Amino acid sequence: MKAKALTLALAALLPTTSVWAASDISALEARINDLESRLAQNEQATKKAEDTASSFEFHGYARSGLLINDNRTGATGTGPYMTAAGDLGAPVGRLGLEDTNYLEANFIHNRQLDNGSSAMFKIMLADGVESSNDWTEDESELNIRQLYAQFNGLPSFSGAFANSTVWAGKRFDRDNFDIHFMDSDIVFLAGTGAGIYDVQLTDDWKANFSIYGRDFGSVESAGTDIENYIATMNNHIGPWQFMLSVMDSKDNQQIVVKDSDDKVDANAKATRRAESGVHAMFAYHNDTFYGMKGSSKTGILLGSGLGAQLKGIGSDGNLNNDAKAVRVFSYGVADLNSTWSVAPAFMAEYSKDRIKDNDEFKWGTFNLRVQQSFTENFAMVYEGSYQYMDLDNSVDSAKGSYYKATIAPTLKLSTVAGFFDRPELRFAVSYVDWSNDLDNFAVSTSTGATTMGNGGETIFALQMETFF
Amino acid sequence: MKAKALTLALAALLPTTSVWAASDISALEARINDLESRLAQNEQATKKAEDTASSFEFHGYARSGLLINDNRTGATGTGPYMTAAGDLGAPVGRLGLEDTNYLEANFIHNRQLDNGSSAMFKIMLADGVESSNDWTEDESELNIRQLYAQFNGLPSFSGAFANSTVWAGKRFDRDNFDIHFMDSDIVFLAGTGAGIYDVQLTDDWKANFSIYGRDFGSVESAGTDIENYIATMNNHIGPWQFMLSVMDSKDNQQIVVKDSDDKVDANAKATRRAESGVHAMFAYHNDTFYGMKGSSKTGILLGSGLGAQLKGIGSDGNLNNDAKAVRVFSYGVADLNSTWSVAPAFMAEYSKDRIKDNDEFKWGTFNLRVQQSFTENFAMVYEGSYQYMDLDNSVDSAKGSYYKATIAPTLKLSTVAGFFDRPELRFAVSYVDWSNDLDNFAVSTSTGATTMGNGGETIFALQMETFF
Amino acid sequence: MKAKALTLALAALLPTTSVWAASDISALEARINDLESRLAQNEQATKKAEDTASSFEFHGYARSGLLINDNRTGATGTGPYMTAAGDLGAPVGRLGLEDTNYLEANFIHNRQLDNGSSAMFKIMLADGVESSNDWTEDESELNIRQLYAQFNGLPSFSGAFANSTVWAGKRFDRDNFDIHFMDSDIVFLAGTGAGIYDVQLTDDWKANFSIYGRDFGSVESAGTDIENYIATMNNHIGPWQFMLSVMDSKDNQQIVVKDSDDKVDANAKATRRAESGVHAMFAYHNDTFYGMKGSSKTGILLGSGLGAQLKGIGSDGNLNNDAKAVRVFSYGVADLNSTWSVAPAFMAEYSKDRIKDNDEFKWGTFNLRVQQSFTENFAMVYEGSYQYMDLDNSVDSAKGSYYKATIAPTLKLSTVAGFFDRPELRFAVSYVDWSNDLDNFAVSTSTGATTMGNGGETIFALQMETFF
Q1: Distance from CA of B53 to the nearest CA of C (A)
Q2: For the segment A215-242, what is each residue's pLDDT rounded down to a tens digit?
Q3: Which N-terminal residues, if any, form the signal peptide (chains A, B, C) (predicted)?
């Protein structure tokens, strides 16, 4: 009886646990089962959504704006290549001088295999028009600038090639780099061809190999397309870069040079068009700003024949057979503190027998852009630019200086994200002037070549600029 | 012994609970731990997939179709601006008249910071060709119509600016609005510039400020780009809108007007091209359809000089110095019941000394589109359009009427989603006719200007139209 | 007392379970509650991310490459339509012959309703340029080749229409198919119009109905657009396909034919341009490779008048009134084993009174592409191509053979994914030659028509090709 009473007492005690055990815990387990199966499904769905979303990318660069001069008409002829030396590729600081509505939009398709290999396909749609109007068909320059595919992580690639990327098609070379503030690449290698990146020659030494073709025109009488074939080896050894390009353009001398009205222009033609060329670059990529926190790049470029176009490697067919050129550059970017950022840049070039026998061109540009942040979204941006030119086209010569000063109140999404954070929405006022000696000089010897005109102009700008 | 037996009995009773407690519940806990960590990961992944997916947007408007006249050839010269007054911006109902393959595709890149501020970058790629063929390079009008960036929710903006949007670049103004059924904006402010939206002046009063530039052409002898600068203040006070624009285009009188063959056409030039202008609009945005359920908009536009182009503000450089114009409009949309929807629209304009001294133009259009839904996917759409014109270009004059009647069996994804739900796939039959007096009249006084030709034509159409 | 002791003993035993029960299990339940609500939220977010991601699609086809001939200049005039019969649509194998940078990029917007119905909107942006340069505005052919919308699963559609797709706009017909290796469609029906796919006439019989319009040009004196209207019924009965098209192009005889300089070229005009036409295709879609594992397609096409352009249905307006043509084709693809894949193709055509009275054209092409896989990523691809021509343009005649042999070391993301897996990055060497008799012959009788020139050329290629 005692035992029975005890059992009953226990029965009264136990239900709270045994009921948990028998039904509630089973219920919890069922809910956990359900959660596990739903989560597994949702993980799949998330993976699929991620894959779908990341199979497409949309990136690029754009700027769009309005330029007004102190005469209340549109400013013409301005831009980073506005000086007489601009025809030689000599840039000045771009801030406040650009009137173009310019776009580089990349549409990218990615494909990934489970073994880690992947394919990437890229289109670049580009345009550049000066008109402020919203329907610009008549001056549209829309075109496809890049169109290529590349593979990464191919399991068949091993040893030195294990981490290589192979590509073919039309593209800008991956390792091009630029001084953004002067709108000038240091090297701009581009065209249609094929190549391989990141061949690991030693632990420290990575090399790229490529062949690019470019078109110089056609010789109609012969039914021949004159092309320039550029073979490049590009080496990275720690912070050092050594890039060597050789090029070959058979029958380039037969090309007839035409003026902007598509008429034969014998004056403008090189004395004897080069049919081969060599181009070299040594560069030092420093992860300090000349010793301080920041970054900087310094180097020298050398070229002869078709290689004497030092920036756009192999892109200019109208170079003299014995053209030679050397260019030096150094630039850096540093965020000094939460308020001030600076980006000085220097570039100078000497070239000789470039287009005509006995021509001789010297120029050097110094540019300084400074950002002074006031709030999370507002900064004053300043730019000063100076260029010295001593130009002799073998017929005529001129020398003198160009200078520009710009102040630009600027809105950014985040000033603390640094100098390169974009979009920027800016208003800018610039003053530009130059030596009178330069006013009527042109590098080209063709009749009617455009000259610098007169300096001493104030220019107002409204502009957006973005990387996206 | 009893106790022992009891303990054993209990031992037999308890295991189901104590085993639950000791191992099963721990197992459940482990599974919950696992679920929690997997779910946390998946939430991150979902967030990332969402961010990736929503960083890109693809939107726009397009129509594409085929027009066949009662002579079994392609209909030419048709469209909402087909009448003699069309050159003045006088539209008629568009249904069944459009032969163009027209596209406005927006590619949008969004960037969002955790503090709630965001940047948006937009490209609009646009085209319009009549050809039904599938390779239209020769008549392609592909161009970039918009290219701008804007910021929202900048933390540095406070007070009246707290909810403002700032932008720069080339764009259509955000607050443009249109009578879709006549393919006519009420105002279409567009160009390249910068501005700010939604400055909160009082609790009820929001204002936008902007400067847009537009190009009128160049004076080659002077190396000058003639631009028109438009400063606009656009005010919303409750349902009321007041928009004021002033514009300035120095040296616009020096522009030479050319005909379609790019030859100088002195006849077509305004007597004395305006170099400034004023434009104003008062509008009432009603959230009822003239008192019933629906919506409607009513207003008046006034302009002088360069402001006399009342729709495309500041877009027409060939206006007379003392041009003046006034336009009134009213239109609305109402879903009367599940079957019937109606959209009446009225627009009329009077302008004087518009292009030549002493010219005088009057026109008024009434349009009615009606949708009769039969099933979830099928509707009959009807449109009647009437336009009265009394036109005197200072040399010649004509007056009379245009009318059009259209019936269009239409497929929609969902007729219940309303009048504006798209895509629509439609077949349409239209009859158009007009007064004989209008046949040979042109607003332009230049030799060889296109006229209306003869009326009395039946037109068959196959078309898709979509907003996306 | 015993009972008390026992109870205490039990109390010592029970806590581990009753504590679980009272607090830990509640805690677990709370965590499960939390998990359930978070997972529900995340499922929603995942659904939204999926919907956002899948509302946009980016697909297409592209190739880009460089062609160098054995003279170290750009190869000109090469391509799958390089032979004298190419003007008649006679292709040869494409591998190693293509110099164009060609793009078809589709931007697709999807919209899905919960009832299962959906709308799809598609743009195709296309370009084709030969230049290897990276800025090709002067020869850009960018244009919108497709622009249409279609509906699927409309609830109002039932019976035979229950699974139908309806569409309108500018498009390539869905059921076009091609011999990829010769860059030739079997039928390429395209233009602007409307239609319906997959009307289920019987259990085995599905039919498509469509009307496409195409432009042949304009008669300026009459202000008339000459269009060709093509009505097509396309039937699938099991593996059999029967496609019938009739076409009507009023006033097509009035069209004036112009040469490439836009000058009237009476020589090139058909004797009497056809104003109507009939086109038929019978095809057998076999899911075996002539009995073995793989696939193949075989058929015959017949046409008269405007239907005598057998591939591009209704696309050629310059056909003779009594033109007649017949074409046969057979091709297949088979992966024989893990190493070898083969794709033979045969196409031949006979046409008469095609452009001029009494002209007569016969040609036949046999092409064989073979893939030999070496690793997961590397294959050798071989192609041999032979074409026989017997061509009489009523003024002049020529007959003879063309042959090509190509070997192409090729990189693929996965060779095991088969013949059509892309991208491919390839190097190719081809040798092409033909009978001397063909050198100076052209199908066109217009003065200055392009001829084949001389054969016997080795061509080197670097190329990427992708479907994406």
Answers
A1: 5
A2: 999 887 777 899 999 999 999 999 999 9
A3: 1-21
